[in-house]
Design goal:
single chain; about 190 residues; 3-stranded antiparallel β-sheet; Arc Repressor Mutant, subunit A
Length: about 190
Amino acid sequence: MREHHSHHHGDGRDGFEKRPGRERGGRGPRVFAPGDLKLLLLALIAEQACHGYDLIRQIEGLFDGAYSPSPGVIYPTLTFLEESELISGDAEGGKKRYTLTDAGRLSLGEQAIALEGVRMRIDVSKRSLRGHDRPPEIHEAVHNLRHALQLHHGRWSAEEITRVAALLNSTARAIVDGPAVQPVQGETQ
C-alpha cells in the first residue's frame, strides 16, 4: 500500500484534494481530473449508502482492478464532501457509513453531464491503464533501462547524448516496426 500521504492526514481542509496532479502522489498516470473524484463518490453513495473502503472497492471495480485509489485520496475527499454537507457520515460500529444529503442529491442532479464526462474518462483511463500490464520480463527490462539512464545522470557529454538518443530511438522504432526490419535470409517465396 502506498503510504506517502501520511503527512497529509489533516482534516482535508488544507486544500490538497483540490490541487491538480496530487491524486496519485505523482506516480503513474493521473486517473482523476480535479473534481472528478468528488462527483464520482457522490454518484456511488447515491446508488447505495456505503463505507469508505466499499467506495475504494467499487472504484477498483469500475477500473476492472487496473487502478485502486489509496485511502489517502478517498478519505480527505469524503471529509470535504461531508463538510460541504453533500453527504453525511453516520459512525455506527466505529466505521462511518456515508449517505447523500438532499443538497448532495441536488448537486448530483445538476452535474449529470459532468458525471457522464467522468464515466467516459474512466473508460479511457481503464484502457490506458490496462496497457501497463506488461509481461514481467518487459517490465524488468524497462526498469533496467531506467536504472542505466539514472546511473548516467550528470555525466552527459555531447557524444554520449547523441549515442544514447540514437540507441533509444532505434530501439523504439524496432519495437513498433517489429522484426520485419531485418532482411530475412534463406527464405524463398
